[in-house]
C-alpha cells in the first residue's frame, strides 16, 4: 500500500510517499530515508 508520511526536520514539515505494508512500516521506511527527521503522521493514500 502507498502511505504519505509527514516528517519534520529543522522546523520544516514535508511529506514523503512510501510503499509499505502498514503505517508502522511506512514510518520506518521514511525515517530510514531521512534519519534526522521526526515522523509526525502517516496516512494511506492513492496515486492521482
pLDDT < 50 runs, ≥5 residues:
none
Number of domains: 1
What's the overall geometry?
A: globular
Helix content: 10-25%
Q: Strand fraction band?
A: over 45%
The first-to-last residue Cα distance is: 14 Å
DSSP summary, beta strand count: 3
Structural class: alpha+beta
Furnish the topology, listing elements before pairings:
Elements: E1 2-9, E2 12-19, H1 23-33, E3 38-45
Antiparallel strand pairs: 1-2, 1-3
Concise summary:
It is built from one helix and three strands, in the order ββαβ. The protein is an alpha+beta fold. It has one domain: Ubiquitin-like (UB roll), CATH 3.10.20.
How would you characterize the overall build of this protein?
With 48 residues, this protein is an alpha+beta fold. The protein has a single domain, classed as Roll (Ubiquitin-like (UB roll)), CATH 3.10.20. 23% of the residues lie in helices and 50% in strands. A three-stranded antiparallel sheet has the order 2-1-3, with helices on one face. The protein is globular and about 30 Å long.
Summary keywords:
single chain; 48 residues; alpha+beta; Ubiquitin-like (UB roll); 3 strands; 50% strand
